[in-house]
Design brief:
184 residues, single chain, mainly alpha, 2 domains
């Protein structure tokens, strides 16, 4: 028999899932169209994520194995300078997929010794400077708008990257040192 403690743990861990399923079920029975639309959107996003993430994790695993830490540290590590910034921007523009696909890449860059500012610059550039996205934006909003938006947002991403490094840099270095010590 399940005790009260186990039920509380289950409720804390999976309560939101149960609540979601109950509300979606009620929406179908009551023919509540906003609830049905929420389920439809959830289903599409879930299928996209389930089909996208396995391939992404395979590629991340190969990158982790094939690219040595020294190479990442050399090109986008602590002493990389402007070349490191340009490299992460270039890497981000070549990527495809939703933003949640950038976080595993950012983690592996961090794990391999990339500079904190370069990781945040990568995330910013990934979110708005992907080549495929820029092509669509030019088609819908025009070249002038896309250039202005890109030229305004890129320096902001770089500024935010250095600000985040200043705010979080020491915490990241301490954690990295602990992880390196723990893996030895």
């Amino acid at each position: 028999m399940i005790g009260k403690t186990e039920m509380r743990k289950f409720g804390r861990k999976y309560g939101w899932v149960v609540l979601f399923l109950l509300l979606v079920s009620a929406s179908f029975f009551a023919r509540f169209s906003p609830g049905i639309q929420v389920y439809s959107n959830f289903q599409k996003s879930f299928i996209e994520m389930v089909t996208f993430l396995p391939l992404l994790f395979i590629l991340i695993g190969l990158f982790d194995v094939w690219v040595p830490r020294e190479r990442i540290e050399k090109y986008i590590g602590k002493d990389s300078g402007i070349i490191g910034i340009l490299m992460v921007i270039f890497l981000a523009t070549l990527q495809a997929g939703p933003l949640y696909g950038a976080f595993p890449v950012a983690y592996i860059l961090y794990k391999k010794g990339a500079r904190v500012s370069n990781i945040f610059i990568f995330l910013g550039a990934f979110s708005s400077l992907k080549i495929a996205m820029l092509g669509l934006e030019i088609g819908y909003l025009g070249l002038k708008y896309t250039l202005v938006r890109s030229l305004v947002s890129l320096p902001l991403f770089i500024l935010v990257g250095f600000l985040m490094e200043k705010l979080l840099g020491k915490d990241f270095e301490v954690k990295e040192a602990k992880e390196a010590k723990g893996s030895d």
